[in-house]
Amino acid sequence: MKKIYLSISILTLMIQFAQAQFTLDGEFRPRTEYRNGYGDIIADGADAGFGTSTRLRLNTGYTAEGYQLYVSLQDVMTWGENRQLLPADTNNSFAVFEAWADVKLGSGWSTKLGRQMINYDDERILGPVGWTQQARNHDVAIIKYKNDKFMLDFGLAFNQDKSDFSGFSSVGTAYTTAGFFSYKAMQYVYLKQQWDNFSASFLALNNTFQDLVSGASAGTVSSLLTAGSHLEYYKGGFGFKGNLFIQTGERQNEVDVNGAYLAGLDLSIKASSKVELGLGTEITSGKKDNSAAFFPLYGTNHKFNGFMDYFYVGNHINSVGLVDIHASVNFKLSEKSDILVKALNFSGAEALPSGDKSLGTELDLVFSTKLKGAGLSVGYSQMFANDGMYELKGTTKAASADGQNWAWAMLTIKPKFLN
Question: Cα 279–281–200 angle (5° rounding)?
Fold first, then answer.
């Protein structure tokens, strides 16, 4: 009888496992960079930065009839960060990057709870920032609805400081984490409708920040609303993408934002089976007497305004606005390889104190190819700064290096251990 019960139990487990799906995969991504003006003007006589970092991920997922579980473990390592024979890693970069459950509620409804990436449209306002080795995540609950070509997401987050091993404090809800627009609470609604060749989405995002510095009322919070739409169209080799967003309310510590905006339009034309042309512009409002500048918050900002990251990548916060006019050509060299050539001209949406608006021109080159089981990308960027760029960055042409450039090479391997 015991053997019968054991056989039934084993059979039940086998049936349950067969009805579920277990995945195990990873990512190994080393990147070497030569930084001679990346992110900021490098001074004359200063040595360029050079080094290699690696992103390592181990991802596991489990899908059953009514839910899906997903966990992603991540470490970001700089080559040489630890001395020889060190018994422990001093980097402290190991983290649970994602840990969420997606539970089906029926009739197209579900809820996704936990630490996760948020990625919408072209990632202008909410994106995973995959270029950075650490990337971006959110601790959030999202109620989701999807029916044919329509989707609706409603997200809620409330963040707290960790006080001890028991978790958050039992008294009060003050949130002291600051920097990079870290929020105390977040609510958003995202809607998207898709047709055959056209799609339109709407995002309304409210972020609440704990006021932390003197000058702001004690214990108060500031709330910032970002709202707008993203449009996409593609047919017969022609396409366009458009963004229009506004911000209003207050940044952290009661900094007023009144009618700040971002507007962008990108056109693409497939000239042939091997050549695609692009042309676009983006205008972002800057600081005014009655308003702080627009900031694209939690987007993948490396994708925009040049790969050298002179704007909105941990920098250029509450400064003059930006006018970005750009053109690109993507050459398909083979079934596995292509090269992107992109030129961007930058100017201020408002004048600098000197009255100058012209900032400069950036040239970006990226070669990408697929290897057996891996991907390789190599890039080079050059900044041709004008006087306005030196003024914006708080230096002079005489004090700056003659060449401002950046080069990198990145290998990406994504093994699938179990699928």
Answer: 90
